[in-house]
Amino acid sequence: VELVDADALAIAAARLDGKVVRTPLLPSDRLTDEFGVPVLLKAENLQHTGAFKVRGMFNAMLARAASDHPPSGVTTFSAGNAAAATAYAARALGIPATVCMPPGAVEAKVQAVKRYGGEIVFTDDLVGTCHRIADEQNFLALHPFDDPDVIAGQGTVGVELMADCAAPALILVPVGGGGLISGVAAAVRAVQPGRTTKVVGVEPTTANAMTHALAIGEAAAPPTKPVSIADGLAAPFAGPNTLAHVQANVDDVVTVDDLAIRDAWWSLMEATKLLVEPSAVVGLAALRTGVVPVPASGPIVLVISGGNAARTGIASVAAD
Amino acid sequence: VELVDADALAIAAARLDGKVVRTPLLPSDRLTDEFGVPVLLKAENLQHTGAFKVRGMFNAMLARAASDHPPSGVTTFSAGNAAAATAYAARALGIPATVCMPPGAVEAKVQAVKRYGGEIVFTDDLVGTCHRIADEQNFLALHPFDDPDVIAGQGTVGVELMADCAAPALILVPVGGGGLISGVAAAVRAVQPGRTTKVVGVEPTTANAMTHALAIGEAAAPPTKPVSIADGLAAPFAGPNTLAHVQANVDDVVTVDDLAIRDAWWSLMEATKLLVEPSAVVGLAALRTGVVPVPASGPIVLVISGGNAARTGIASVAAD
User: Which residues of B touch A29 (CB under 8 A)?
Assistant: First the structure.
């Protein structure tokens, strides 16, 4: 496996310039008061499609579109955010997208795919169906996280945040399949080979594909099917590419349980005035539960991965 | 009445540099698709204290603190956001704040004042109580909107957005007592004397102090007590300063009813991934109801005034 490097990140940043939102790195006075060090939020819920995913999927599709064999259509599998990102990028490139999603996908994510003209196939066999569609329709099967161009695209989150805050003490990144943290960590190491900034991933206890892959040393699926309130992090497995990036560049991957995620959900929204999905708050849950120690000084950056939350979920946590 | 000019705005911007958040001007692809022209959001819900108010109150208190008679304490009256802003600025300056709020104030706003160490007096006689406190305790009575330094501070919202988007076709601004729109319109006219950008204010139908003042030509209270789901806009009256600024610099002030505000509330949050209070969505309600025509081209800027929403209100609109 070849790791994403500074050149790949620069190419991705140039490709995506003007096509994705350069999201703000927002200070939170409330969270700064709570933890006693500056807390900053990389607000990818404010990204087009409401999640960081559009960076990686768009970068990969632009790369393929510029190749000798540009795709005539695209398919992927996803809890929803990668699906919406794929539909968004496909619309921009003028090609069709058919995406595979689990039957219980969050309605906001289903609507997002439809908004951008994507076709949805609901299936429990996400990977098999995706490959079948690719074969039958001669579409590009784009992996939602385990692809170097996808990782490089997600890495522009890290490129931007390191430009806006030169020396964070700690960056906390939600982990599903690991594309986001692979890209962010690559971007941090590219500008900071001395590793003064810690990059730590956070997974749900019950959707811990990366922790499992790290423990056994290979990207095999965990024995039980991942499920979590953080639906966007319930990837069925990590990939060889993302595992290698995490092994090389990430300081730690920790887990938080669904109760801690739910507790952090409303309070992050209330404190930061950002509408977010549960996957986006695992970093705050990790600080609150103490599974990641608060650094003695220097800013903490929380990567807020997305905002495509179930309306019923928001109603429920707001009513608590 | 002397109008806030470019010099006053520049002084306010310099005073507030580093003390307030330079909030992002965010593109919304969803609202852009809906209206067919670019829609941008000036996200003051992401401001310290969760609302634009800290700009004006902080600027005025910094101006008084630098005078020959710096205040030993400060009081104001407010539905909550100006109160929290006053408490925040007073804490920064090391002086006490006692604020007057209506008995039914939104709990999030009450908590915000307490978080920053402010004392609250709940009263229906907001102005009288404020003046009594000022007399008894020898505190500065700071008007929450009808003060040139407050207007200049709020004007930094306009200074920033005109720096980030040179030629909006239309800027929609929520109107309570009129401090925000007075400052924003002054900033627009300072850089654009040719008035190519329209600045339009939006009030609740049932809390229309500025519309009333414009109609009778003086800053007298409307005959009925203002009340609205947009609690932050229920100012009891406009002021001579804000009326004069609106007469001089604002193109129109329109009204939207509470049903239209409530309809716009969840959908703005869902589309933009910002947690906002009802006062912040009146601009979107004005476009949706057609009371403000969508310009043929050029960006629309919605000033998102704040995010201190009642938790029960969010639960209610999310559950609809």
Answer: 48-49
Long-range CB contacts (within 8 A, 24+) of A187-192:
A187/A9, A187/A155, A187/A156, A187/A157, A187/A158, A187/A159, A187/A162, A188/A158, A188/A162, A188/A249, A189/A249, A190/A5, A190/A6, A190/A9, A191/A6, A191/A162, A192/A162, A192/A167
**Helix residue ranges per DSSP H, chain A:** 6-16, 29-35, 53-65, 81-93, 107-115, 126-137, 148-164, 179-191, 209-216, 240-249, 258-272, 282-289, 311-319
Q: Which of B194, B199, B148, B192 is nearest to B175 (CA)?
A: B199
Residue A161 to residues A46, A182, A304, Cα–Cα distance (Å): 14, 15, 12
Q: What angle do CA B87, B89, B92 make, to 5 degrees?
A: 110
The DSSP bridge partners found for residue B303 are: B42
Dihedrals phi, psi of B83, to nearest 5 degrees: -65, -45
Sign, CA dihedral B251-B85-B75-B67, equals negative
The answer to whether B312 faces chain A, any CB pair under 8 Å, is: yes
Please count the residue pairs, one from chain A and one from chain B, whose beta carbons lie less than 8 angstroms apart. Answer: 75
Tell whether the torsion through CA atoms of A180, A186, A191 and A194 is positive or negative: positive
* A29, A275, A315: residue with CB nearest B274: A275
Interface test with A, best of B25, B273, B305, B308 (most A CBs within 10 A): B273
The pTM of this model reads 0.96
Residue B124 φ/ψ, nearest 5 degrees: -85, -20
Cβ-count burial of A54 within 10 angstroms (0-12 exposed, 13-18 middle, 19+ buried)? buried
Cβ of B273 and A24 within 8 Å? no
Q: Look up residue A269 and give its two tokens.
A: 């929204």
Kindly state the tokens that stand for A4.
Answer: 């994403």
Measured between CA atoms, the residue of chain A closest to residue B88 is A29
Record: contact B315-A318, CB cut-off 8 A = yes
Question: What ipTM does this complex have?
Answer: 0.95
pLDDT tens by residue, B11-33: 999 999 999 999 999 999 999 99
**pLDDT tens series, chain B, 320 aa:** 899 999 999 999 999 999 999 999 999 999 999 999 999 999 999 999 999 999 999 999 999 999 999 999 999 999 899 999 999 999 999 999 999 999 999 998 999 999 999 999 999 999 999 999 999 999 999 999 999 999 999 999 999 999 999 899 999 999 999 999 999 999 999 999 899 999 999 999 999 999 999 999 999 999 999 999 999 999 999 999 999 999 999 999 999 999 999 999 999 999 999 999 999 999 999 999 999 999 999 899 999 999 999 999 999 999 98
B122 strand-pairing partners: B101
Report pLDDT digits (tens) over A96-131.
Answer: 999 999 999 999 899 999 999 999 999 999 999 999
B314 touches chain A (CB under 8 A): yes
Beta carbons of A129 and A102 less than 8 angstroms apart = no
* Chain A environment of B311 (Cβ under 8 Å): 266, 270, 318-319
Q: What are phi and psi of B282, to 5 degrees?
A: -65, -30
B26 to chain A, any CB pair closer than 8 A? The answer is yes
Q: What is the tens place of the pLDDT at every residue in A285-300?
A: 999 999 999 999 989 9
Tell me how far CA of residue B86 lies from CA of A91, A272, B45, B74, in angstroms.
48, 19, 16, 8
